[in-house]
Amino acid sequence: MNKKIKIIIFSLILLSTYSYRVYSINKNAPDLRNYTEEKIGQEFEAFGGKVLVNNIEVIDNKDLNKIKNLSEINKTYLDENKEKYIKIVYKAKNIDKYDFGITLNTQGYIFDDGLPSPEKIGEDKYEYIIPVENYRTIKEKDIKIFFDSFKSNELEHHYIKGVG
User: How many separate domains does the chain show?
Assistant: First the structure.
């Protein structure tokens, strides 16, 4: 009898420790119920303007020449040691590009910011580059791009899943 109680108590302690660990990891993750899922190629209203994401692409380091008109400031942030980059091509109308936050999520609760600023490649059209750590495996279907505004309503959030 005494041994059974010890086993039950030990099991409860392990379970509560595991539950706390899962909670502490999950509390840093965005609650996707508060985010509006958008589609690639479909314009959506966001932050007082309109956004259209044309493409999300994984680029190898050797193919960085696919990135158009990279400014000198952004070139200094490119790292030859990084194997992969994510390129997001989007249009943003009536949205301040410096107020527009784009982050990448590929694995669970780790978020990556991109280069300091998006590159303008046309009228209201931008390219945004996000470097990815080498230890990560990237599958386009697992990519989630999150859009936020630094000044706008904090209750408005959008994300787009990669295709693949």
Answer: 2
